Amino acid sequence: MTIAPTVHTRRTKASWFAPMLPAVVMGLTACGSAGVSGAAAPVASASASPANVSPQTTQAQPASGAETPEAALKSWVTQVLQKQYKEACLSGAPVLPPGQDAETLCASPKALASVKSLHEAWAKPGVKLPPEAEVEVSEVTAKGNEVTVPDTAVKVDGQTLRSLELIGATGDTGSFSLSFKMQKHEGAWYVQDFDLKF
Question: Is 176 contained in some domain?
Fold first, then answer.
């Protein structure tokens, strides 16, 4: 998936951001293109996520979208939790910006490291992961072909991604947020980006 984390940096508050921040700041994204959501601050605009992978660049592994944004996000988070980083990256190929090659993007060590950082943020000790536990996504109301889903709407083993991300965090975490930008393309939904704010 081509996921472009929109990063609004104030101060690091959770230890799992340590490996992720450099990638985001350098314009790398977890399996996608790092599109800093409308921020005037330094935006990480890198394409290392599967959601922004163009269809013509994924001839070897054509991406198939989902019928709903919930299903697309559930599939993507499950892939990340199962350490299927390249597959997650490639899954967003149809919504990759023009001119970006999905195979090249998703083979990048930096792009894969970004996705791995998400896995580390969510896979905490004592938490059951897929296939032992199922990823659940709350109902999403999409207006048009795009919708943003907060990490609080996604659960693994009964815990939201937000609560997992904050395990071990120190300091003021009130301004921290992670959301997923979903996009519909030719009737199917894909994870197109993610927005990380501190």
Answer: yes
The total of structural domains in the chain comes to 1
Residue 60 lies in a domain: yes
**Does residue 174 come out as left (phi exceeding 0), alpha (psi in the -120 to 50 range) or beta?**
alpha
* pLDDT tens digit at each of 198 positions of the chain: 445 454 443 333 343 443 443 333 222 233 433 332 322 222 222 233 333 333 333 333 446 799 999 999 999 999 999 999 999 999 999 998 888 888 998 899 988 888 899 999 999 999 999 999 999 999 999 989 999 999 999 999 999 999 999 998 877 777 788 999 999 999 999 998 888 887
Which of these, 67, 68, 62, lies nearest to 50 by C-alpha position? 62
Neighbours of 8 (CB within 10 A): 19
Rounded to two decimals, the pTM is: 0.72
Residue 1 lies in a domain: no
DSSP-assigned beta bridge partners for residue 6: 195
Residues 123 and 154: beta-carbon distance below 8 Å: no
Cα 21 from Cα 91, distance rounded (Å): 23
Element (H, E) at 21: helix 17-25
Structural domain boundaries, residue 19: 6-197
Alpha helices in 26-91 (DSSP H): 69-81, 85-90
